[in-house]
Amino acid sequence: MLEVRDLHKYYGSFHAVRGISFDVARGEIVGFLGPNGAGKTTTMKIAVGFMTMSSGSVRVDDHDVVRESMAVRRVIGYLPEHAPLYEDMTVTEYLKFIAEVRGLKGKTRSERLAYVLGVCALDPKKTSGIKTLSKGYRQRVGLAQAIIHDPKLVILDEPTVGLDPNQIIEIRNLIHQIGERNTVILSSHILGEVEATCSRVVIINEGVIVANGTADQLETDLGGKPRLEVSLGAPLEATCPAVESLAGVNAVVDSQVITGGSRLTVDIDESNSLVTSICNLAEKMEWELFEIVRPKKTLEDVFKALTISSETSASAPVMATSEDSPESVVDKGEES
Ligand code: ATP
After folding, report:
1. What CATH number matches the domain at 227-293, 3.30.70, 3.40.390, 1.10.10, 3.10.20?
2. What is the pairing mode between strands 76-79 and 153-157?
3. I need a surface site. Which of 36, 116, 242, 261 has the fewest CB within 10 A?
4. pLDDT tens figures, 28-57
């Protein structure tokens, strides 16, 4: 549905997007995640044809975004970070106007209008002036205009920014609903947002993609060596050497005295057979086994590790998909 290849964007001499490549398949809800200034909005704007690229290519539903821009616009719905709404219109007037601009006529237009008013829960406000709406309702209007022409690909830039927690939940539910019919790309710097909403995450930092996968994959891939945390009802002097001698344990990397026993963090080859070995050991030694857990990195750990500095991100082990290749840049963008 979306194919981005070796995309570069210069603002004057500033290289904001540095050769990124990624794909979004039909039916996916993909989170485009990155810290402030990473290049998310720039990439989104290029993908929807609102901004020129310096080099590279973007295809949407098999149409080239530069050469077939009208075809691309027909299949894309876009909610910009600051959605421009016509303040003096009512909700219905505005959505009718957008439907007309999108080329919808007659019965189709009425049906789509009724659909977006319903799905975006705008019916109670359909005759209200846009200038009287709360932020949450304005964002619903923004979403309604983005999907009124039933686009195959919906691109949402920071859709919940500035909303209160209840409004955030409502908009997330709405995005889920939109994702049932359409492919969605959601740009955000809010981890919870992406984790709650998206099936896959692309992380961008300083104009480069540093990770691309499901939240689970990223958490596992960046987790480093597999580890277990084992809490046993016996003192460290007994548990530490016994656990360290088990086949499959590489090292005890941390140990702690806890109430009634000890907790060990162990580097292991793989967890399945070791859990059985540890249970057998506890039974044989007549130690109480309090807990065995497999600690996992969270998406927040992954995000921090990949975006804290460019040095860190450059060495990150997760599916880095693109490299800066300045020699391929043929045209330096003029926007500033
Ligand atoms: P945020 O989460 O803060 O919206 P972002 O990831 O969307 O950030 P972009 O808005 O794409 O980031 O900006 C990427 C970089 O390009 C930033 O360093 C920004 O300052 C710079 N930039 C963006 N627009 C322009 C412009 N029109 N002229 C010059 N530099 C720009």
Report:
1. 3.30.70
2. parallel
3. 36
4. 999 998 888 899 999 999 988 889 999 999
